[in-house]
Amino acid sequence: MQIGIGLPNAIQGIDRRGIVDWARRAEAAGFSTLGAIDRIAYLNYEPLIALAAAAAVTERIRLMTDILIAPLRANTALFAKQAATIDHLSGGRLVLGLGVGLRADDFEVSGVDFHTRGRAFEAQLAELARLWDGEGGVGPRPPGGRPRIVMGGGADVAFRRAAEHAEGWTMGGGPPDSFAEAMDRLRAAWAEAGREDEPRGVAMAYFCLGENAEEVARRNFGDYYAFLGEWSGAIADASANDADAVKELAAAYEAAGADEVIFVPGSPDPEQVDLLADAAGLGSRSSAGAA
Q: pTM (2 decimals)?
């Protein structure tokens, strides 16, 4: 199983160091992927722009939106061009984790209908494929023909969309047991669609390490997920705050069938990159060919 790390693009106090320095450190440490999460009505860095900055200072590490709220990018041709540009600049390293989104305020401020977002997303997925195949002259052409896609969301329709349009599925937080159950649903959707390849499964976990880790995690995750009410505290409490917790989470997701787990940070301090690499035993995993 591979170990990725999230960019702190939606954490309080984020600045250039939390994108540029973080990305350089993550690649040097041997992480498989840099992930970026998405909100509009929040004081976060926009994920595609953050990943473009990361692409400019890295050479190997994958760049993933985990996830991007696709229906908010209502100009699909512009969105296709933006994604193709990052994929081209990075040498084909972009992975688009896509979903429909949960927060009505993101749609309200964007002038996009929240209640029809599912239908809009279906049409958008078909249009993206056409545009990346050359229709309309929208370029540059991604190195692999089109960026790789994984689908987010827990409804049955999300697994169908994954089987029709993507190389796999990503779980935006949740325990390893839930991930294992979701992979069963994903494989069933794969079989129903007649696909013979194996779906890729990506899990997202939370971490915050070092001095006052629990306090920092509660403050930052609590603020970002405040819209969930009392559940925001549960997310902070579930974050891995020491090396043992990181190892246990990684092992549990691996046992649940994850191909990759991306640890999303609760602090914007680039020192978190090295702390997580040490906690996950990334050097030893790389030398053993496991990461």
A: 0.94
